[in-house]
Amino acid sequence: xxxxxxxxxxxxxxxxxEVMWKHCLLFSWNLKRPTIxxxxxxxxxxxxxxxxxxxxxxxxxxxxxxxLAETTEDVINFFVYTIKELFESIFGDKVDFxxxxxxxxxxxxxxxxxxxxxxxxxxxxxxxxxxxLDRVIGRFAKSAMHRYNRLExxxxxxxxxxxx
Length: 164
What we know:
Blueprint: H1 14-26, H2 36-43, H3 52-68, H4 72-91, E1 102-104, E2 112-114, H5 116-119, H6 122-129, H7 133-153, H8 155-163
Antiparallel strand pairs: 1-2
């Protein structure tokens, strides 16, 4: 069956014509000619949610805590508790978060690890896959790693400041 998608007076982009042609070849059994809206709807990207608003709300307090951190253990604790608060503000009571669910990883990208237990929750997994949450947490982890490395590098200087 021949599918005529270009009628007189229509100007289509090359991409749209290619998509429509593929649609006609793949679904030639369909007697109804696809509309542009149908084709765009089928080929549209998945909707992405952004959590940068939550990041901007938590960031000043997180930076303040990192600046007050005296040991590398403080940095890890501040990171975990900040991410836990971030998750609670995003998910509310839908997902239960524990201290062990997020870990700061040293020496490799990404600098964090999320537990498998969280991914067993459909609510968490769907938000994780359809949002920028991994990038938001990655930015928090990167800041924490910079502070961690600084404290580790200048530990003697930090210890003398604490003793004073």
